[in-house]
Amino acid sequence: MAQRPPITLRYFDARGRAQPFRYLFAARGIGYNEDLVPLSLGGGAVWPAMKEDRSRVGPFHKLPVLEYGDRKLAETLVIGAFLHRVLGDQALLSDDDNLRHAMLVSSLYGDVVTPIAMLLWAEALYPGLDYGGFVRGSLARIRGHLGRLETTLTEWGWAASARGRPVMLADCLLWEELDVARHVFGKHAGLDQFPTLARLYAESAGGAAFKKVLAVHTAPVTGRGLAAEAEIIGRLPGLIGA
Fold first, then answer.
1. Beta carbons within 10 angstroms of residue 110's beta carbon
2. Which residues make beta-bridge pairs with 66?
């Protein structure tokens, strides 16, 4: 196998959209450099100045950015598809399974990652928002999507197929979002009502590596920061209700 070029992952000091890439590298034993951008909204914030440096933030002035040798990639889904191909995972799957992998990644980012991030940012972004109503509506939509994932991954036989291949990006992203849902919503996530998802979470082949990543570096889910997120999450049970 050809030696991999140097890899650098640049993202905020948060889990966010880049955490599944960290899990993937950890589970597969792939060395990489991590360029963590500090989270600060005050006068010493690093991001406002960095945002104008296209050499670091890519063509759309956003993170994450992946540097793979002399290639610089932007956009989360594009980075994921690139890693799926360049790590050899695409070649291990059938055309149908590659499509399923891509559909699951897209669905998780669009229907779980983004809504949870918006929930944690909503009060700051929309002053005067009926936050209790927003929280309850968001939880209902996320739980509805978890139900659809339960049905789909059962039909696809995801657990059985995962046992016959290396840990791949979709596995990392699925575990991360189930973990984030438990972290943010606690018992209200209702994962015990979704036996396939609960089993995939508990028995993931990459689970030990994923937990080690979390243990080595505690980071907030989003750019709100640990203290702000803890305060929000602590209020959620009262806003959700019984």
1. 12
2. 9, 73
- Which pLDDT tens digit goes with each residue over 3-23? 899 999 999 999 999 999 999
Angle between helices 207-216 and 169-185 (to 10 degrees): 60
pLDDT of residue 3: 85
CB-CB contact of 61 with 54 (8 Å):
yes
Res 209: pLDDT: 98
Distance of alpha carbon 107 from alpha carbon 123, whole angstroms: 25
Domains of the chain: 7-89 (3.40.30.10), 94-240 (1.20.1050.130)
Residue 167 scores a pLDDT above 80 = yes
What is the value of pTM for the model shown?
A: 0.96
In angstroms, the CA 208 to CA 203 distance is: 10
- Is the torsion defined by CA of 191, 196, 202, 208 positive or negative? negative
